[in-house]
Amino acid sequence: MPGKVTTMRDAVADLVRDGDTVAIEGFTHLIGFSAGHEIIRQRKRDLTLARMTPDVIYDQMIAAGVARKLIFSWLGNPGVGGLNAIRRRIEPASVGDGTALEVEEYSHFGMVARYTAGAANLPFMPLRSYFETDLPAANPLIREIRSPYSEETVYAVPPLNPDVTVVHAQRADVAGNTQVWGLLGCQKEAAFAAERVIVVVEELVDEAVIRADPNRTIIPGLIVDAVVVEPFGAHPSYVQGAYDRDNRFYLDWDPISRDEAATQAWLRDWVYGLDGRAAYVEKLGDAHLASLRPGSAPSGSVDYGTYA
Amino acid sequence: MPGKVTTMRDAVADLVRDGDTVAIEGFTHLIGFSAGHEIIRQRKRDLTLARMTPDVIYDQMIAAGVARKLIFSWLGNPGVGGLNAIRRRIEPASVGDGTALEVEEYSHFGMVARYTAGAANLPFMPLRSYFETDLPAANPLIREIRSPYSEETVYAVPPLNPDVTVVHAQRADVAGNTQVWGLLGCQKEAAFAAERVIVVVEELVDEAVIRADPNRTIIPGLIVDAVVVEPFGAHPSYVQGAYDRDNRFYLDWDPISRDEAATQAWLRDWVYGLDGRAAYVEKLGDAHLASLRPGSAPSGSVDYGTYA
Amino acid sequence: MTGVADDVAFSKSEMMIVAAARELAGQRVCFVGVGLPNIAVNLAKRTVAPDMELVYEAGVFGARPARLPLSIGDPTIVTGATAVVSMFELFAFYLQRGLVDVGFLGAAQIDRFGNINTTVIGDYAAPRTRLPGSGGACEIAINARNVFVIMRQSSRSFVERIDFRTSPGNLGGAEQADAIRRAGGWQGRGPSVVVTDLGIWHFDETGEMRLDSLHPGATLDEVRETIAWDPKISPSLSPTPAPTADELRLVREELDPEGIYTK
Amino acid sequence: MTGVADDVAFSKSEMMIVAAARELAGQRVCFVGVGLPNIAVNLAKRTVAPDMELVYEAGVFGARPARLPLSIGDPTIVTGATAVVSMFELFAFYLQRGLVDVGFLGAAQIDRFGNINTTVIGDYAAPRTRLPGSGGACEIAINARNVFVIMRQSSRSFVERIDFRTSPGNLGGAEQADAIRRAGGWQGRGPSVVVTDLGIWHFDETGEMRLDSLHPGATLDEVRETIAWDPKISPSLSPTPAPTADELRLVREELDPEGIYTK
Fold first, then answer.
1. How many structural domains are present in chain C?
2. CATH of the domain at C218
């Protein structure tokens, strides 16, 4: 399998198209900020953005005007408050004469089940949720289904198959075989569900590193179109074992995002005005990044044995 | 959480009851032979045995008369041939006036989907299989289901919730937190689907070993009722990194199992006549076991980081 | 400041968090929600429920966070945990299978029967305020064996009629709710307790919440002013014991040193 | 022994395995079945298809077995593999999602349209011979993009009517099969090739198998005697090139030194 290593600029230019459904997943852990910023920089338009928790990255992308629709299950700045730029595109009082963002809303398990159905090529996924709530009325894609084994009725959600899924990970090899430890979220499902996959990693490793521990592989190179190597590409979110969440950033985003002008100024300073993640990392500064480094907690090694 | 470590004798006496549905899973890897032998030794009766690949262990158990029914998806001695003791209970020519074994048959994915539905507490699991085959006619529990999103029809299987699932694993702590590497089969799903779970391990480890690498845990102590420590408990199947498949045994089983008297003699010599796995291991002999030891292939260690 | 424990002043929020933590005594497996539930559960783990297993929807079972997690996906919930699993497995095999004893939720609006809104204020299609939405709350409310709620009281949050039902509680009353939960194969029995900044509410045999305990410094008038219906008050209403010095120390020094939740 | 390659005698089984392996040239992802497919695929990996990714239903992607796996769950397929996944993921995310280019199956009975029986000989409820059953074959036949079959010819196995349809092929013919596969959302196009101990069969536009290549030493009479219907023979029938010395060495020394499959 030939090497798939490329730059973020080329990966986004080649693989993300106006009008696409794009999923940048990662539940608090491993959020693909650097990919989101490149999508902003390349001024992609009319995207449908899917993500369980839109988080600050989608607040920034939607503030930058890349999206017409949002598919999600929890809309907040975790541990801080709301996502103000997105709310301005949803609440009529602030949307005014502007274009409201279309929303399609599920619960967490509903979103996970949608990706799972997409990854498994199933026409629907059943789940025991939504009973006696207003969610099915708000979203007619949440539908009842009768069990073929009883009178019992549960709910179903349809598959979600993004055009592009972006996964940030600790490491991959040049073929895109990707390993993650710590929170796994729904990245595996979102990647298998997608037509195209971009993997962004902290570290490019030799194939032998991957093959030494095959149980840690969450995504095979088989479904990966591009591998981008960008250390700190998940900042201000975190990477287990590599750096901590930059909580100050999440707190600071709240006042910035409450003000449209401040939001656009931030995007100029930290996205449009920089040519990529390396410049962003340089601007953050070594001292700041060093403050996010955790101590060491090794997993230990297990033995797979040789059988020749 | 209090310690759950006990003997195989007590675990089987306390947790396996006549008439139970019992799943001893492990796809070629980690087959719970020592648990199966103890079930034979305690002369359990009228069990429904569930297993994707009944393998030699269920051939032995069914030869010993513990079962009235078999739920499965592939009935063979892998790499060798048929399962002769089971066939004698199925093919009318050899069943004669005896009691035929009841069979309930799926495909591999159907069995996996049944355990998954059981583990997830779903009334059914949809899958894209069985189209235009004779399997739904042979097993009326395989049923069609219409998608709520199109005219499309797929098949469904019902949940399988064993009374007892037995999982053999590389290691667990006293609370039953269990880690496996190498083939995972459907053990996680079979364990979560079960009412009671027996974990049999090669090695009991400190809780700190488990907590050093939480991504490797496949079964939490929460659902485990008994932990039995029995090195070589999966022989003649294998344990990744610990010992190889004893292929000679699988080959030898073929002529033994073709002959009812030889089969019963084997059970006397290797099951009834021994008081447990330690005696079995001693009878196998150190030299033989040493020949099954693989070379070393370490996984390497990853860093989870400390976040205090 | 609303009260004094061993001569130490404490805030309403601190009392609420401490009272919520105490309710977790004896619970085995708790599904931890974002925000106030997070700090209450972590306090319980350090006080009344040291053996309680913490489940985070991010995919962690048996978390042992070394600091208060900054979010429900903080790396500190992973390092040293018993198991990390995909979110599919967490929701399907743990929650939906019925392994979670307590689901601990926050709420923007709640009605007398413990039905919860965290989706919108106003009309769904044109909301006055867009709230976060369900996250995992909808399925937690359905499948956690018991549901605990922690939220501040106000007449805007304790309402006669919630604007959107995100998470079902006792529906229109206990009889209806029990029948529907049983027939529908829900794993959960519904809400057990609502802990507020003023007191502790449990649910009576009709499925309606009833004030069983009043926090130090709070008054029944204050309780009635911050609720949109005429609330049931237990005839044996008792005062909530004030936070102990140790509880306050844990909250202030270990769990929320910046006072984000407790101001 | 049926032939001679570079003056080396070879068996019918060896010819069959070598011919099957060669058919895999250019394939990217192959789902490996138990028995003969296992050795044929491992030979292809060492000869015509070194970059082919091996998928084992046991839950392995990108296997690099250092020896011929003794079964499809041998530890040698795990050590050094790219990924090990649960069987749910293997069947759902790899096979059902359409990522498998070739599913390689064996069979006990096959009909002219490539429909396969591996379940029973005789009546299902009272079988004369109980066979292994589907295993993964049923879903491989439906969802692998192409299906390759390897099996020995005999009038008991190449039958007019199979006793049980375990794995669908071209059903009653190509037109019907294409319509059903498309309408039903199957990922697979159906059987591509059947390699036997006598020759190589592909499927013509009607969906029926046609002999395209005859192995050295085999005769058309022999072909017709070991098949229950009047078979189609390609007008451009060609001889199968004999195994090379290298192919035979790999089979005999590396893949099947005990001659379990090749006798």
1. 1
2. 3.40.1080.10
Q: Quick check: is D261 in a domain?
A: no
Which of B75, B86, B108, B157 to mutate against chain D (most D CBs within 10 Å)?
B108
C-alpha distances out from residue A83 to A60, A248, A254, B150, D233, Å: 9, 16, 8, 35, 70
The dihedral through the CA atoms of A253, A255, A260, A265 has a sign that is negative
Q: What's the CA gap between A55 and A86, in Å, rounded? A: 10
Domain residues for C134? 2-255
Residue D179, in any domain of the structure: yes
pTM for the full predicted model: 0.97
As a whole number, mean pLDDT of residues D219-235 equals 97
Q: Where are the beta strands (DSSP E) in B109-215?
A: 125-127, 143-146, 153-157, 164-172, 178-179, 196-204
Catalytic residue among D14, D23, D53, D57: D57
Contact at CB, C76 and B308, closer than 8 angstroms: yes
Q: Which residue has the higher pLDDT, C70 or C13?
A: C13
pLDDT in tens, D10-32: 999 999 999 999 999 999 999 99
Length of chain D: 263
B179/chain C closest Cα distance in angstroms:
9
Where b means 16+ CB within 10 Å and e means fewer, B239-275 reads: bbbbbbbbbebbbebeebbeeeeebeebbeebbeebe
Comparing CB atoms, the residue among B27, B75, B185 nearest residue D132 is B75
pLDDT tens, N- to C-terminus, chain A (308 residues) = 458 999 999 999 999 999 999 999 999 999 999 999 999 999 999 999 999 999 999 999 999 999 999 999 999 998 888 999 999 999 999 999 889 999 999 999 999 999 999 999 999 999 999 999 999 999 999 999 999 999 999 999 999 999 999 999 999 999 999 999 999 999 999 999 999 999 999 999 999 999 999 999 999 999 999 999 999 999 999 999 999 999 999 999 999 999 999 999 999 999 999 999 999 999 999 999 999 999 999 999 999 999 99
Residue B196, strand partner residues? B164
Spatial distance between the Cα atoms of B299 and C41, rounded to a whole number of angstroms:
36
CB contact under 8 Å between A303 and B156, yes or no, is no
Whose structure tokens read 């299906």?
A: D147
Q: Is residue B235 left, alpha or beta, with left meaning phi > 0 and alpha meaning psi from -120 to 50?
A: beta
Beta-carbon separation of C119 and A130 below 8 A: no
Q: Which residues of C are catalytically annotated?
A: 57
Please write the tens of the pLDDT for every residue from D57-99. Answer: 999 999 999 988 878 889 999 999 999 999 999 999 999 999 9
Q: Do C58 and A91 touch (CB under 8 A)?
A: no
Q: What's the CA gap between B236 and B34, in Å, rounded?
A: 10
Q: Residue B1 pLDDT more than 60?
A: no
- Asked whether residue D262 is domain-assigned, the answer is no
* Residues of chain C contacting A112 with CB distance shorter than 8 Å: 87-88, 91
* Chain B contact for A249 (CB, 8 A cutoff): no
C220: in domain:
yes
Kindly determine whether residue A214 and residue D60, on different chains, have CB atoms separated by under 8 Å. yes
Out of C88, C132, C184, whose CB is closest to A186?
C88
Best C60, C76, C93, C139 member to test B by mutation, with max B CBs in 10 Å, is C93
Complete domains list, chain A, with CATH? 5-123+158-290 (3.40.1080.10)
